[in-house]
Amino acid sequence: MGHLTYEQSIKAVYRGLILLGVVTLIEVFISLLAKGHIIKGAEEHKVILYTAGLFIIGLSLYKAYFIVYDFMHMRYEVKGLAMSVLLPTLLLVWAIIAFFQEGGSWKARRDQIKEKNAEEVEGKTQGGLSLGDDVYVLPEWRG
Amino acid sequence: MATAETVLEHEVHEHDSKDAWSGGKEPFKASYGKLMMWYFLLSDAFTFAGFLIAYGSLRFSSSTWPVPDFVFSTAPFGIEKAPLIFVTIMSFLLIISSVTMVRAVQEGHRENKNGVVFWMLLTVLGGLGFLSCQAWEWTKLMGAEHMSVTTNPFGTHTSDGVYMEDEHGHAYKAGEKPEAFKAGGSYLIHKHENEATGKEEWVQRKVKYSDGTMGIQEFGPAAFGALFFFITGFHGFHVLSGVVFLLIIAVNAGSGLYVKRRNGYEMVEKIGLYWHFVDLVWVFVFLVFYLL
């Protein structure tokens, strides 16, 4: 604060309201578009889904930046304060990469278990009745 | 005399920060309370990030996942098949309450008591509106759709096929055209009253896939229910405590407590930081649960 007059800062607030509102509406529109609610069949294309996802993530990050810098006045704080709050959040980049990698790996394991369970062992079916006592079938985890 | 007055004024102004944190100079030119609010919010951001990343990795680890615009497609007054509309309204409520909060802080800087109280009460209304919407959403999911922390009736078909039974689990009569479905299509498993026992029971309809194999509607990944209720619940609890603190501070402001402090209603600024953070978290909850 202190950089703008009272009237200017009130105007800035309502500009912020319109900006956040419009960005939110664009996000919802893109999301519905990619899921095929606006153009039928769009949801069948993986490319559209991923591009739309990236767009929406970008817009959300912009909203976050706007809220922190304008509404929470980070713009007017000393640089040291801003950095001591914002830089630690970069650790999350690593967390996201690591845990999503882990999630993908779990999926590969689950698919493998499913595949193994579907295999027929010497004519015996996986119904569970005709398998020997020493055959352990890994349960399929429901998540 | 003039110098003494200036010193006194200075001390009153710095009263909250206790002689500029006793070092003579404020770290980061911010009061203790404001700086600690920022660090609290940073730690809270990590908590929420942990939850949302857990959601992401579990979603990555499952071969199917409920489609948000199928799960969240109802609104009050019997509106159905309106994907994401109700939750967009909830987002707008939070954005508007964030704007009224900024106005309250601005009036605080001008030492305008009535302005502060007026805009804070509007912010409280926005928060209560959001909580009411969330209460409706949860009631619908738990009461009408029977989703719980351990059960998720929202499933996804893994391949094309046709249903062998109608909605109530009765085999199709001759002449009835069986309902077809496609891979990736969403369904909700309903509960229906069992004619024999009179109890509500899940009806998982029998299906025949296009490769000739038979099956039933499987429940969706159970983690979805737990993640949804814990994460939106944790956020809702933040909103609720925000409303409580906003009310306390609005009452204090109205009683003239902050007029005496002469620090530009800093307490209002601090609860403002918290309230904007709640809005900030919702940006990401909205992104992860509803948009993607």
Could you explain how this protein is built, in words?
The complex is a heterodimer of chains A (143) and B (292). The longest helix of chain A has 29 residues, at 6-34. By secondary structure, chain A is mainly alpha-helical. Chain A folds into 2 domains: 1-76; 78-120 and 138-142, no CATH class. Helices cover 64% and strands 0% of the residues of chain A. Chain A is elongated. In chain A, helix 1 packs antiparallel against helix 2. Chain B is an alpha+beta fold. Chain B folds into 2 domains: 31-150 and 222-291, Four Helix Bundle (Hemerythrin (Met), subunit A); 154-216, no CATH class. Chain B has 9 helices and 8 strands. Chain B has helices at residues 2-13, 18-21, 32-61, 68-71, 85-109, 113-144, 223-254, 257-261, 266-291, and strands at 154-156, 161-163, 180-181, 186-188, 190-193, 200-203, 206-209, 214-216. In chain B, strands 3-2-7-8 form a 4-stranded antiparallel β-sheet, with no helix packed on it. Chain B is elongated, with a radius of gyration of 26 Å. Chain B starts with a helix and ends with a helix. The interface between A and B is large, with 53 and 58 residues.
Summarize it.
The complex is a heterodimer of chains A (143) and B (292). Chain A has helices at 6-34, 46-71, 79-86, 91-118.
The domain count of chain B comes to 2
Instruction: Label the overall shape of chain A.
Output: elongated
Quote the average pLDDT of chain A: 85
Total strand segments of chain A = 0
Low-confidence stretches of chain A: none
Give a count of the beta strands of chain B, DSSP E runs of length 2 or more: 8
CATH domain class name of the largest domain in chain B: Mainly Alpha
- Give the CA-based shape of chain B: elongated
What is the distance, rounded to the nearest whole angstrom, between the alpha carbons of the first and last residues of chain B? 66 Å
Task: Identify the notable features of this structure and list them briefly.
heterodimer, A: 143 residues, 4 helices, 0% strand, elongated, B: 292 residues, alpha+beta, Four Helix Bundle (Hemerythrin (Met), subunit A), four-stranded antiparallel beta sheet, 58% helix, disordered N terminus
